[in-house]
């Protein structure tokens, strides 16, 4: 197991970060800002007028502009998760030895976009807001013990060790107490004005396009990007067209055969970058309803999934194949694979799958249809948003594998808003593809799939564990890994977790999902590159503010 990178109790020294200047403003104003609009594109369809940066499914989070209006405590490089974070709204964060307490020193000289001073009270309020509203507390459910302000610093106490979740605290978006403190229901608050500390402020909103303009009093200095616009497209194809024509210059979507489809259109300026980490995509299976309430069928389906074909045909090689039976991406996860699973690789084995089913009491009728132990034919629906071509193509291949078992599997696209706001959180699905959180260890990957601490009954809002898997031994092992202060304890816990993942197949990891983004340098340069992967290259995260600090108008 890897060693701890941040020593317990270490203080992260603040760094002086300002927006970069340039010698050519491309026709901009005296600040050096370009007159060119940087257009960010996302394939998420029309948006409702909800700017709430804390509420899952809001337009500001879906398209990503929440992250240039509101900012996080620290900047975390998800591509290198063990690197020290970069100070941002917090000048430093100090942890105690068992990671149950964080002391946050706020950055001085920061103002909200309405001119009010940013203080420690805003940080404490933003944490308390999540503690008081479980719907907004995705990262630390029932784990905040208390928050206070002492001598100008924020003290956050947790009920359990947060060794594996430090980056989640760093990434929390901070909102102003003087605005949000007057809100009756912060979950339903639409935050129309968007008063933030970030480099941009909201200008105009429509369901298809959102405009932002620079914050002239931004603490990091005036951005060189003179204006931002976030355009939303109905599907991956729509965004791909916009990127290849230059109508959008930054975004992330799945582009089949991206080298010929996208980069070849302008090899000098069009780029796609990808990074590693523990990000994967998972076929979440509804463990509470047929046919996936029977682990034998989950195991059997796993053995029919041709992950090489899924990666090549649905993922065009952009999403690397998962080979380990533990679901961990390689080589990132190699050091975390339990001894008993070292060298054990996934392979298609339809005969083995049928034997598992036979042993579990399944049969086949005269037509070859699979019949479960209750005498019912096995069928299920796989669903994901319409337009998400890589996911839907992967589901088609998975359905083909299931049919080799005699199961009737169909793929049904869904409206994106319905998938986000109804299908996923309430468990209104049988099988669906979804990503997991990244992190500096595999803990997030397994917790998001299997953690009983995130379990809620069907019909109630789930933040993770969408498949409703509930195994106390796994829940205890995840808690033990999270709270351990030594490698031996973590290794023992990981073995328990991986044994359950392999034996119960509560959800099926299909491929690795490195952070992928496309961008054009026709107007601006300074984006993350393969040679300088200083941040997750996508515009839909707290790193957007950091990336904008690096962008300068292209020399003409």
How many strands? 22
Provide the β-strand percentage band.
15-25%
Low-confidence sequence ranges: 1-27
Distance N terminus to C terminus?
49 Å
> Radius of gyration over alpha carbons?
24 Å
Total DSSP helices: 16
SS-based structural class? Answer: alpha+beta
In round numbers, the mean pLDDT is: 91
Spatial strand arrangement across the major sheet: 8-9-10-1-11-20-12
Q: Helical content, roughly?
A: 25-40%
Please tell me what the overall shape is.
globular
Q: Main β-sheet: number of strands, strand sense, barrel status?
A: 7 strands, mixed
Could you explain how this protein is built, in words?
The chain is α+β, with helices and mostly antiparallel strands and 556 residues long. It has helices at residues 59-63, 66-69, 120-132, 166-170, 177-180, 236-245, 258-261, 295-304, 307-314, 350-359, 389-403, 416-426, 443-450, 472-483, 487-504, 543-550; strands spanning 37-42, 74-75, 86-87, 90-95, 101-106, 144-150, 153-158, 200-205, 209-214, 227-232, 250-251, 270-274, 280-285, 363-364, 370-371, 379-385, 408-414, 431-435, 507-512, 516-520, 524-525, 552-553. The strands form seven sheets. It has a seven-stranded mixed beta sheet with strand order 8-9-10-1-11-20-12, with helices on one face. The radius of gyration is 24 Å and the shape is globular. The relative contact order is 0.17.
What layout of secondary structure does this protein have?
Layout: E1 37-42, H1 59-63, H2 66-69, E2 74-75, E3 86-87, E4 90-95, E5 101-106, H3 120-132, E6 144-150, E7 153-158, H4 166-170, H5 177-180, E8 200-205, E9 209-214, E10 227-232, H6 236-245, E11 250-251, H7 258-261, E12 270-274, E13 280-285, H8 295-304, H9 307-314, H10 350-359, E14 363-364, E15 370-371, E16 379-385, H11 389-403, E17 408-414, H12 416-426, E18 431-435, H13 443-450, H14 472-483, H15 487-504, E19 507-512, E20 516-520, E21 524-525, H16 543-550, E22 552-553
Parallel strand pairs: 1-10, 1-11, 16-17
Antiparallel strand pairs: 2-3, 4-5, 5-7, 6-7, 8-9, 9-10, 11-20, 12-20, 13-18, 13-19, 14-15, 21-22
Helix pairs in contact: 8-10, 9-11, 13-14, 14-15
């Amino acid at each position: 197991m890897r060693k701890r990178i941040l020593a317990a109790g270490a203080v992260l020294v603040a760094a002086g970060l300002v927006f970069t200047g340039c010698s050519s403003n491309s026709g901009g104003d005296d600040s050096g800002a370009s007159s060119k609009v940087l257009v960010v594109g996302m394939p998420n369809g029309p948006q409702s007028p909800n700017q709430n940066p804390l509420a899952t499914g809001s337009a500001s989070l879906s398209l990503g502009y929440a992250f240039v209006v509101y900012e996080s405590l620290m900047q975390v490089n998800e591509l290198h998760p063990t690197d020290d974070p970069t100070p941002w709204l917090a000048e430093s964060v100090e942890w105690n030895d068992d990671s149950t307490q964080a002391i946050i020193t706020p950055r001085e000289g920061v103002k909200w976009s309405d001119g009010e001073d940013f203080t420690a009270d805003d940080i404490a309020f933003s944490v308390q807001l999540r503690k008081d509203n479980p719907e907004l507390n995705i990262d630390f459910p029932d784990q905040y013990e208390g928050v206070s302000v002492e001598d100008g610093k924020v003290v956050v106490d947790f009920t359990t060790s947060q060794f594996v979740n430090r980056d989640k605290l760093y990434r929390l978006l901070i909102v102003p107490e003087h605005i949000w403190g007057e809100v009756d229901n912060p979950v339903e608050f639409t935050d129309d004005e968007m008063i933030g500390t970030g480099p941009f402020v909201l200008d105009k909103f429509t369901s298809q396009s959102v405009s932002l303009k620079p914050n002239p009093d931004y603490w990091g200095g005036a951005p060189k990007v003179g204006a931002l616009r976030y355009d939303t497209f109905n599907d991956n194809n729509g965004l791909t067209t916009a990127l290849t024509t230059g109508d959008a210059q930054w975004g992330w979507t799945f582009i089949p055969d991206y080298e010929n489809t996208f980069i070849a259109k302008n090899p000098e300026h069009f780029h796609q970058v990808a990074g590693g980490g523990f990000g994967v995509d998972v076929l979440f299976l509804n463990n509470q309803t047929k046919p996936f309430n029977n682990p034998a069928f989950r195991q059997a389906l796993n053995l029919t999934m041709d992950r090489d074909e899924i990666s090549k045909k649905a993922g065009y090689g952009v999403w690397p194949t998962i080979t380990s039976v533990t679901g961990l991406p390689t080589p990132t996860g190699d050091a975390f694979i339990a001894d008993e699973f070292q060298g054990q690789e996934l392979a298609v084995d339809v005969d083995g799958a049928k034997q598992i089913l036979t042993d579990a009491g399944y049969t086949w009728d005269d037509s070859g249809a699979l019949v479960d132990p209750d005498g019912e034919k096995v069928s299920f629906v796989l669903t994901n948003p319409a337009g998400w071509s890589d996911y839907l193509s992967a589901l088609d291949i998975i359905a083909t594998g299931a049919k080799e078992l005699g199961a009737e599997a169909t793929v049904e696209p869904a409206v994106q808003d319905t998938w986000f706001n109804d299908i996923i959180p309430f468990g209104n699905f049988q099988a669906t593809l979804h990503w997991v959180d990244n992190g500096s260890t595999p803990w997030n990957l397994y917790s998001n799939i299997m953690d009983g601490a995130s379990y809620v009954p069907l019909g109630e809002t789930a933040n993770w564990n969408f498949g409703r898997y509930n195994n106390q031994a796994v829940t205890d092992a995840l808690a033990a890994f999270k709270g351990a202060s030594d490698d031996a304890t973590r290794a023992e816990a990981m073995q328990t977790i991986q044994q359950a993942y392999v034996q119960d197949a509560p959800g099926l990891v299909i491929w690795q999902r490195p952070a992928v983004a496309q961008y054009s340098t026709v107007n601006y340069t300074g984006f993350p590159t393969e040679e300088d992967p200083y941040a997750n290259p996508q515009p839909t995260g707290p790193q957007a503010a950091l990336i904008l600090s690096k962008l300068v108008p292209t020399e003409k």
